[in-house]
Amino acid sequence: FNDPSLTPETEAARFIDAEKGVADVKAALEGAKYILMERFAENASLLEKLRTYLKQEAILSARVIAGKEEEGAKFRDYFEHDEPLKSMPSHRALAIFRGRNEGILSSALKVGDELPGTMHPCEGMIGQQFGIQNQNRPADKWLGEVVRWTWKVKLYTHLETDLLGELRDGAETEAINVFAHNLHDLLLAAPAGPRATLGLDPGLRTGCKVAVVDATGKLLDHATVYPHVPHNKWDQTLAILAALCAKHAVELIAIGNG
After folding, report:
1. Residue 178, H or E segment
2. Are residues 43 and 139 in the same domain?
3. Domain annotation covers residue 88
4. For residue 153, how far is the Cα from the chain centroid?
5. Residue 250: inside a domain
6. Which tens digits make up the pLDDT trace of 114-143?
7. Whole-prediction pTM
8. What CATH number should be reported for the domain holding residue 229?
9. How many Å is the maximal CA-CA distance in the chain?
10. In this predicted model, what pLDDT tens digit does every residue of 36-78 receive, in sequence order?
11. Sheet of strand 105-110: strand arrangement
């Protein structure tokens, strides 16, 4: 790692020790590869750079799982769907997650075309972080393989899980906020539509409070009637209520629970 001009196989031969579980050159190189992979994957600065890059550049790609087309017809809009991670609306993100949970869709984060045989941009960032580049030196090919494995085995799954989890949390929060806003408007809306309404708040000694509002909820009139004991002004109450209903064209009467 420190001197790419050295031949990996020659250097690895010095660490062969059957008693320590290093049986041959291949085992020594494999062990060295995983040591470097751990070192690369635990670099906080690198992780932050990769995360920021993927958050800005990654595409969330959804595909239908072979043979699930008919069963998952409700997810047909996402059978072959690609959209930038940074701008994906919450409702589409949640639909893809539901399709994945139901075994209809698969999803993955991608950057560019990712053609076979080409270097992933994130592999280049790992190499740059640790000064690894192909200059046709003896160790360059092996170090390049370490970089590829670090990305594919150690970092990609970790970062994808992290970013998709963040996307899900944000989408669910937004969905809850939209639902709460809509529910708020619904609860404040007139339950029977825009109609003139007379409201009665039952009472005995202090009387029944009466209020009339128009179709927009604006207060039009109010009164207090005493139909029950100890006043027993039943006929007077009926007359007042009838007059209010006639005066304001009341269509509905709402009675409180006292």
Report:
1. helix 156-188
2. yes
3. no
4. 25
5. yes
6. 777 788 999 999 999 999 988 889 999 999
7. 0.68
8. 3.30.420.140
9. 112
10. 999 999 999 999 999 999 999 999 999 999 999 999 999 999 9
11. 80-84, 59-64, 105-110
